[in-house]
Amino acid sequence: MPSGKLLTRARIAGILLALILIVAAGFLATNITRRARAMRASLTTFADVADSRPGMRIEPVVRLEGSTAGNVHVAEVLQSIDGTDFRGTGTRLEFVVDRTATFAMGAASDLKPGAVAQVRGMLDAARRLHADRIVLLTRFVHVAQGGT
Q: Domain spanning 46-143: which CATH class is it, in words?
């Protein structure tokens, strides 16, 4: 039969293990919440992009088509159907990724043709978006075929 000290130690170990699991679950929930906030629905509609002027901050969802010279990317602006489903609009947008840009749910190496991203930044006089934040959505959204 186990002694009283052994039972007390087992109870303490069980309580410590439970506390460690609770703290780990809290960190996981915080990380998921942070990522979910980064993936919120686009604040910029297709009409907003069309009406935007130099100096305005916009945050459209786009599908990358390719890159031109340097760090300039060409993308098609997408229109949200229901938050996770999008369709093409036929409108093209050039954007440059600023050196200080932050990435969520991906990295600069994920900016390849076909990738879907929410790009936040400011338009310059040439209507080129200077992106300071990019959220890669490729694995989380669906783009309807033949949407343009």
A: mainly beta
